[in-house]
Inverse folding.
């Protein structure tokens, strides 16, 4: 028997105009430098929480040939692997080739999304441990927004410490609200276990604007202040695992510090004590 498609429904389906197009479903502007947005998820896309994909828009036409090419950048997926949509958290750079335009997207617009997720900030790249540290600066919070909503994070660890260092207090809001929302998330409390979020120790700091805790996380760890505030011992390879995602200088400095505590860098093919990835900046 031939299956008949309802004519009205068929008409309502939007025809994609871009290759690998996904449709924007919501946009939130957090500060004049930061925004997050959600898009439809390709039915076939499977990824591990913490991974990234290439996303973008069509570039400007080439002045000579008139040809247009996609303008793509690596973006951590900020939503967890079980979410039916995909979420991204982005900086706005006024003269950045992509984000100067991406910041203006509206629900209903299309973006390009290459459905090939990759990355090292995944549970598979770490050996079992007791405490998991997430170290982020700026939009480096994105992969942790995914992992903080991933049941495995709480199944594998007794404690999760998330540190987030930003210039200004307003830049902490996306992360702070996300962590706060976990308390009232009925689905996650049911799936992972009531009160799972009590395993999280959140340590936000600012460097260029007054807030409850000032200073770079690296300095606060070196002085011992961060450990005293958190009520935990400094990291050790026996108990602690870590993921780093921030700007380049931060990643390098923290990497050196973690090696100083005796932690060894891991990868998908060789799970160890910590992993690192650069946050997208453009
Ligand atoms: P600072 O204001 O002292 O430079 P950016 O927006 O430039 O990516 O920086 C995000 C945050 O990361 C800022 O608070 C910045 O502090 C901090 N930061 C930059 N470099 C380092 C580093 N090497 N170690 C720790 N924090 C850093």
């Amino acid at each position: 028997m031939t299956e008949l498609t309802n004519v009205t429904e068929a008409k309502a389906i939007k025809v994609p105009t871009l290759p690998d197009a996904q449709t924007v479903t919501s946009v939130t502007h957090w500060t004049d430098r930061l925004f997050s947005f959600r898009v439809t998820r390709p039915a076939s896309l499977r990824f591990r929480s913490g991974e990234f994909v290439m996303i973008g828009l069509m570039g400007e036409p080439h002045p000579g040939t008139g040809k247009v090419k996609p303008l793509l950048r690596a973006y951590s997926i900020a939503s967890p692997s079980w979410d039916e949509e995909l979420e991204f958290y982005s900086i706005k750079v006024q003269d950045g080739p992509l984000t100067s335009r991406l910041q203006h997207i509206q629900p209903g617009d299309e973006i390009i999304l290459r459905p090939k997720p990759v990355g090292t900030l995944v549970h598979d790249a770490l050996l079992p441990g007791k405490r998991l540290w997430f170290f982020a600066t700026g939009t480096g919070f994105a992969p942790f927004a995914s992992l903080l909503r991933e049941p495995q994070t709480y199944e594998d660890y007794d404690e999760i410490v998330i540190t987030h260092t930003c210039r200004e207090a307003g830049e902490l809001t996306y992360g702070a609200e996300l962590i706060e929302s976990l308390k009232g998330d009925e689905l996650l409390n049911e799936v992972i276990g009531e009160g799972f979020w009590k395993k999280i120790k959140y340590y936000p700091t600012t460097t260029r604007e007054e807030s409850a805790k000032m200073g770079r996380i690296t300095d606060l760890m070196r002085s011992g202040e961060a450990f005293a505030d958190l009520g935990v011992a400094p990291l050790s390879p026996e108990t602690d695992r870590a993921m780093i995602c921030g700007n380049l200088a931060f990643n390098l400095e923290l990497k050196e510090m973690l090696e100083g505590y005796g932690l060894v860098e891991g990868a998908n093919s060789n799970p160890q004590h910590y992993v690192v990835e650069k946050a997208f900046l453009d």
Remarks:
- Confidence is low (pLDDT under 50) at residues 1-11.
- The CA atoms of residues 125 and 271 lie 4 Å apart.
